[in-house]
Amino acid sequence: MFGNIGWGEMVVLLVAALVILGPERLPGAVQWTSRSLRQVRDYASGATAQLKDELGTDFDELRQPLSELNKMRGMTPRSAITKHLLDGDDSLFTGNFDKAAEQAGAPQQPARRQKPLKANEAPPIDPDAT
């Protein structure tokens, strides 16, 4: 629950609570907050258990699309391309693509080094690319 709050923020919140509530009311406020959070958590788990009891196997069918959405939430463009277009082969992104091509028997093309253009020199044009 407090995964995004660091120690510095926690100290600032504690000091602010101490200033706002005072040292006399702070322990009571902490107890009330923890009791309320525990009660909300119990209500949520009780509601989930009640739905599961009432719906039976239909509950799992309802949860499946939600779990698929959670999987898609972590999907990045790289992982989407790897999964759907490359069938899980991420050698294109890891730099092992040339090694995989060599193993498959594909001829490796030598890297071309172009010399810099001189002043007022037109760049080479590839008629097949246009």
Commentary on this structure:
The protein is mostly helical. It has a domain at 8-55. It has helices at 7-55, 57-73, 77-85, 91-94, 97-104. The longest helix has 49 residues, at 7-55. The two termini are 55 Å apart. The mean pLDDT is 78.
Low-confidence stretches: none
Radius of gyration: 30 Å
Helical stretch count? 5
Distance between the termini: 55 Å
Helical percent range?
55-70%
Oligomeric state of the chains in view? single chain
Structural class: mainly alpha
Beta-strand fraction estimate: under 5%
Mean pLDDT level: 78
Number of strands: 0
Largest sheet: none
The sequence of SSEs as H and E is HHHHH
Shape: flat
Which key features would you list for this structure?
single chain, 130 residues, mainly alpha, 5 helices
